[in-house]
Design brief:
The chain is mostly helical and 223 residues long. The protein contains eleven helices and no strands. The N terminus is likely disordered. α5 runs antiparallel to α6, α6 packs across α7 and α8 crosses α11.
Length: 223
């Protein structure tokens, strides 16, 4: 079964909307990350309001998806600049993450690990898109403001400028300025030396300022 099919089956089984509004699912909202991941993995030592086993695991996965899907979508959209592609990548990331939760370090935040998966899924999707070109309707950001997961827009001009960057420069910029990762974290996520990350960030800032300057747009500060 494909990842997309797995995710659709998972969504159908869990019914996230109803679970999120239920008292049982809401009881997991305040759980710390380690406990939630343990429940997602079916750890029998974890319980909540008498819920154990498969029912608790289903609720835990639903809460895990709720916590992370929005920022994963926003990151995916910034890297893909296409809503449907970002939706597809978000589904792919969540399926991969849930399948591989046993591999993450529970003593650390799960977010950098999820970011690595997201960046890699975006790279794969972009390569596939390049091999199978099609007409993309890139809606202006102003049109997407009502989308529940876009938010915090940089502005249409800056998004266009980002899309002119080398993919590595763009990824660095998005991770550093929009996702607020440190250079050390980005180095780990992108699997390149920290010196390379700093160089890519410098070049990204320089190219963005040059591009925006040509259009007589002068942000107060980038960097």
């Amino acid at each position: 079964m494909s990842l997309s099919s797995n995710f659709n089956a998972l969504k159908t089984k869990l019914k996230p909307e109803s679970l999120e509004s239920s008292k049982e699912c809401m009881s997991l909202v305040d759980w710390d990350e380690g406990r939630l991941i343990a429940a997602c993995l079916g750890d029998e030592s974890v319980s909540a309001d008498g819920q154990t086993g498969s029912s608790l695991r289903a609720m835990a996965i639903c809460e895990f998806v709720r916590r992370h899907r929005d920022w994963i979508f926003r990151l995916s959209y910034r890297l893909m600049h296409h809503v449907q592609d970002a939706e597809d990548v978000t589904q792919d990331v969540l399926v991969r993450a849930i399948k591989n939760l046993h591999r993450c370090d529970r003593d650390r935040s799960v977010r950098p690990w999820l970011t690595t998966i997201t960046v890699n899924c975006c790279k794969t999707a972009l390569k596939k898109r390049a091999r199978q070109p099609r007409i993309y309707e890139e809606l202006p950001i102003s049109t997407l403001e009502n989308h529940s997961r876009i938010g915090d827009d940089l502005g249409e001009e800056l998004q266009r400028a980002l899309d002119t960057l080398n993919p590595n420069y763009k990824t660095c910029f998005v991770l550093f300025y929009l996702q607020e990762h440190s250079c050390d974290e980005i180095s780990t996520i992108m699997e390149v030396p920290i010196g390379t990350i700093k160089t890519w960030l410098y070049r990204a800032r320089h190219e963005l300022m040059t591009h925006l300057g040509r259009r007589n747009i002068w942000p107060e500060k980038i960097g």
